[in-house]
Every structure is written in structure tokens, then in C-alpha cells.
Amino acid sequence: MQSNRREFLSTSAKLAATCTLFGAMSGIAIAETDSVPSSTTSKITDSHYYLDNVLLETGFNYRDNTVVGTKTALHTLEIKQGKIVAILPNTQHQNSQLAAYSANNKLMLPAFRDMHIHLDKTFYGGPWQAPESREGKTILDMIALEQKLLPELQPYTQERAHALISLIQSKGSTIARSHCNIEPVSGLKNLEALIQVLDKHQQDLTCEIVAFPQHGLLLSKSEPLMREAMQAGAHYVGGLDPTHVDGAMEKSLDTLFQIALDYNKGVDIHLHETSPAGLAAINYMIDTVDKNRSLRGKVTISHAFALATLTPEQANTTAQRLAEQQISIATTVPIGTLHMPLKILNEHGVFVMSGTDSVIDHWSPFGLGDMLEKANLYAQLYTRPDEHALSRSLAIATGNTLPLDNKGKQVWPVAGDDASFVLVDASCSAEAVARISPRQASFHKGNLASGSIEKRVG
Predict the structure, then answer these.
(1) Cα–Cα dist 380/12, whole Å
(2) At a CB cut-off of 8 Å and minimum separation 6, what does 15 contact?
(3) Which of 62, 229, 374, 389 is most buried (CB neighbours < 10 A)?
(4) Which residues make Cβ contacts (< 8 Å) with residue 178, sequence separation at least 6?
């Protein structure tokens, strides 16, 4: 029965994502408070300005003790040098000399965070190309295929990385973590190209880089290249399935962690293994961090599919251990047969992030680059479809930053916060998650990263 439910949810999630293509409307209808003339712009050059007609969540509506709705109100934000310096009554400008823009009554949500993506190798931005059949193929077969494909993709690395960045920004993500191939076929070429791309996005994107030995850290003898990548600007040491790919779990993980310790870097490893080897690797990483406390808060396990094989009791124990060592989990919120214990992880205080992973590449053609879709999937698979639970589900897309706390107290935005946010055509967070509502504009530290905004005249 549970399997049938997940199949149904998988289908309904895809239908919900499709609805975004037709611009599902939120139903909000709030009139402008004045009729100041305006013009549309896709660029803000002012370092100090007002943003009027911003819809902010202010609290919950209750029936008895049950949340039945979300309170909102229009405000003006004063933004200066990338920060929100004041939250004011709507259209109340203390300095008439400052430029003013209008959010056109759109809901303001925290910037989304795409914390697992591969910007350096994608079909996106090029002609349509479906992946080859994976029937009967192992991960080692896929690695062999990639070794042939990479030289064909590398001439387009920068062009397509820019296109992929534009896509995720249009969906509200201005913070990201990109894995970047480091192996003998690519050398440091992909890393060098990605650094150049990100240098051009300094004003509209914050992106960490994980040096990723996609062809196996030990299998492809990539340790020297990984060490070069640390010196060349990578922020994290990556890894891949230490048992199924490298064939030596302890040696593979010891090598990975030693690179991280030598260069004072974080760790973010792909762990797809669902056999007992996957859980053994998770426990070994927990023990390693416990022995090397400087790694606490700096280790992420991406995918971590082995957690889906645990009983609730085992999941509780493992979640507690992960939380104690401040190890985070990055998930794509998988649908189908893998039912991850994400709710249990959250309950124990494990920081759970989400990411796109593939958009269109030789692994998968289904990625939308949309973290709001991930929040929607999380809500469908792991929570209840009520106002409070839907609003809480947004956290997986925003790095746990929410406008309201669990009791309905407004906690974001506050003066001093980065002016990094997304404007959404929805009446509240719950609606945005449930309907995967359209995005109007994305801001990163006061800069308009994507979309358009009205500039008020006079």
C-alpha cells in the first residue's frame, strides 16, 4: 500500500510541476496603495533604494489551536549596500531622494538554495538530448560512458554553466553548491572554467565548489588532482561510493578526509550505496568526525540513500549521531521506491539541504532547477497538507530560513539581513509550496539577479 501511495505521489508531483508551466495563479488581489507612475526594469544599479509593496507574512490565523491561515501585510524595505536596513510602513519614504521600486504586491520569501548541482557538465543550454538507456548498466558503466562524453561537453562548459545559472536564478535560487569533475579526463579544466563563470556572477550568485572525483578517488588515482583543486580554489573535498566504486571503503574515506584536514576544507561526498556498505560508510564518517572535531559542521553526505533502508529505530539512532557530529544531508527528495527518513532527520536537528543534482545530462533529463518544486515534493511525501505543515516545508528550499517560526512569530526579514530573496505570486508560503507558484524576481544582496521589477517615477 505504501509503495502504491508513493507511485501516486510521484505522478501527482510531476503534474504539479507541470502546472507551473501554465503559470498557476495564486488568487491574491491587493490593490496598489497609490498610483505612482512606473516603468519595468531588469536591472537595479542603485546601492541604496526603497522597495515598496512587498507582501510579508506577519503571523498565523488560528481556529481554536489550529493554524488555518497566514496573516500578511504590505511593507516597504529600505535596502542599502546589499542589506535590508529597515522595514517600514508601505510607501513611507524617509528619504525622498532615494530611488524607489515596487514589488507589485508579490510575496517575499527567503532566497532559495540549490545545494547540490553540477554546473560544469550539462546538456542544458544545448540541443535536446535524452540520456542513453541505463538498463543493465552499473555505475562503473556510467563512468565509462562519461569518460567518452566529457571531451565533447568541455567546449561548451562555460556557455552552458551560464545558462544553468540563469535557470536556477529564474526559479529563485541565488545560493548554490556545485560539484565539479576532477579526474584524469578533465584534469582541472572544468574547475578552471567554472571559476571563470562564477567570477562573472559575483554580484548575483554565491556558489561553493566541491571538487568531485566522479570516476572514483582511488579508482581513477585522482588524489594528486584533488589536492591541486584544493589549492586552485575548491571549497569542499568530494567523493563517490567508497565501496562500490573505489572498492576500499576505509582507505577511500581516509584519503578523502585527510585531504580535507590538510587543506582545512569541508567534505561533501556522493553516497548512493543502499547495501549494508552504505550504512557502514555513514557510520565510519560519523566516527571519523568524532575523532577529528575540526570537521564538525563541515561534512555533508549527499543522497545518503542507505538511510532509506533503516527501520524507524535505526533511523532515530543514526539521526542522533549525525546531529551530534553536525553532519548535514543533501537530498534531491527522491520519489519512487526510496523513502528517506527526512522528517526523522529534521526532528533530531540534522541540517537537511536540497538540490537539483542533474537538470538535463547523461544521468537524467527530468530536473527543473526549482527548489520550490523540492519543497512541494517534501510536503507531499513527508508532511500533511495543512497550512502549518506546508509553510514549514519551505525550509528545505531556503536553508531553514522561514518568515515565521513554528508559533507564528515573524522572524524574517529583520534589519541587518542580506537583501537576498525571491518575489512569488502567492498569498503565503503554504500556497507557494502547494502550488509551486510563479516567481517574479530574484534578488541577491540587493542586486536583481533574475526577473523584472517596477521602478517608480516621481
Answers:
(1) 9
(2) none
(3) 229
(4) 117, 118, 119, 120, 194, 207, 208, 209, 210
Confidence of residue 9 (pLDDT cuts 50, 70, 90): very low
Cα separation, 92 vs 106, in Å, equals 18
- The three cell numbers locating residue 95: 528619504
* 367 vs 355: CA distance, rounded Å: 10
**Best CA proximity match to 122, nearest among 81, 61, 166, 82:** 166
Find cell 556510467 and name the residue: 142
> Residue 236: what are its φ and ψ, rounded to 5°?
-130, 150
Q: CA-CA distance, 15 to 188, in Å (whole number)?
A: 40
**Beta bridge partners of residue 232, listed in sequence order:** none
Mean pLDDT of the 110-120 span:
98
Query: How many other C-beta atoms lie within 10 A of the C-beta of residue 391?
Result: 26
Residue type at position 356? T
Contact between 125 and 163 (Cβ < 8 Å): yes
Q: Taking the CA atoms of 343, 334, 340 and 244 in sequence, report the sign of the dihedral they define.
A: negative
Q: What is the dihedral of CA 426, 430, 434, 439, to 10 degrees?
A: 30
Instruction: Give the Cα separation of 432 and 439 in Å (integer).
Output: 10
**37 within 8 A of 439, measured Cβ to Cβ:** no
Amino acid 37: pLDDT: 63
* Cα 227 to Cα 262: distance, rounded to the nearest angstrom: 9
Burial class (CB in 10 A: 0-12, 13-18, 19+), 87: middle
